[in-house]
Design goal:
Elements: H1 3-24, H2 46-80
Length: 98
């Protein structure tokens, strides 16, 4: 496979990973459903708890996918530097003006 194609695929995966991380961030900014609200009097309703759990799972999935895409993208870019036989660079002769 052509190293330029591998590099371009890696770059596209990096861009997709950054977009996912920008959109969903890391799961640390989302309240985990089991953070101890049950100790409070009148804690979250079952609907609120379900909403929190759904949000937590969605953010965790997409943020991990974003990190994974970044890792795979950078790996492909590194591999593209070492794949293929380096071709000799032959520059055309440039005539000098008289």
């Amino acid at each position: 496979m052509d190293p330029d194609v591998i590099n371009s695929i890696g770059l596209a995966l990096d861009i997709a990973g950054v977009v996912l991380l920008f959109r969903f961030g890391l799961p640390s900014d989302v309240v985990h459903p089991d953070r101890g609200d049950r100790l409070l009097l009148g804690g979250p309703t079952p609907e609120e708890r379900q909403h929190r759990e759904t949000r937590w799972n969605r953010h965790r999935f997409w943020s991990r996918l974003g990190l994974g895409l970044l890792v795979v993208g950078f790996a492909l870019q590194a591999v593209s530097n070492h794949v293929g036989v380096p071709a000799a660079i032959i520059l055309p002769a440039i005539p000098c003006p008289p």
